[in-house]
Every structure is written in structure tokens, then in C-alpha cells.
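Work Package 3 (structural annotation) set out to generate three-dimensional models for the target panel prioritized at the project kickoff. During this period the team completed the workflow that converts sequence records into C-alpha cells, so that structures can be stored uniformly alongside our sequence database. As a representative example, we reproduce one entry of 49 residues exactly as it appears in the project archive.
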Amino acid sequence: MVNYLHKLDDMEHNHEAYAERGEVAASPEARKWVAAVPSRKALPKPQEN
């Protein structure tokens, strides 16, 4: 589950940052957690049956 905090004054700025540069607004805590999660690229490919 994910909780979101929408700061209305920041929404347009955050949208433009994502739309123009692919930048995602996230708290330092969220960035730290994401950095600790192994990349999906590092996971083995699922075996086909």
C-alpha cells in the first residue's frame, strides 16, 4: 500500500518536472527505500512452461 500526500501548491511544478524531464517528486525517505530495493533488471527472467 502507498500513501500519497498531495501538496496542491506543488502539483503543477511536479507534473511539469515529470512530463518534461521524467523527474519524480518523492520524499527523501521514499528515495532511500527505492534505492534499497533490488532492480527488476537484476531479477532472473521467469521460466516459460
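The radius of gyration is 15 Å.
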